[in-house]
Design a protein that fits this description.
about 90 residues, binds zinc ion, about 30% helix, mainly alpha, 2 helices
Length: about 90
């Protein structure tokens, strides 16, 4: 029989994943270092969405720049229309 004292305190004190598992409980696996989730719940290297939610951007039609450009064009067209009405 071994009398080696197991020092598992630091291991057990590490941050836990906490993701909701299929049975509804929180995942108890240790979180990957500098991440909130374990290797099976999105903590693996290279996983997860890129910064600033670029996954949702398909064509850029609704970016702030595109909306501002359309507003400027509308204002310019309105100005031209008013000018043409004055010239009549
Ligand atoms: Zn997990």
């Amino acid at each position: 029989m071994s009398y080696h004292i197991r020092n598992t305190g630091p291991m057990l004190a590490s941050p836990r994943c906490g993701a909701k598992t299929r049975c509804g409980d929180a995942c108890r696996s240790p979180a990957v270092s500098r991440k909130k989730r374990c290797r099976m719940h999105g903590g693996a290297p290279g996983s997860g969405a890129p910064r600033a939610n670029r996954n949702a951007r398909k064509h850029g039609l609704f970016t702030g720049d595109a909306i501002a450009e359309r507003r400027r064009i509308r204002e310019l067209l309105g100005e031209a229309r008013r000018l043409l009405e004055e010239m009549k």
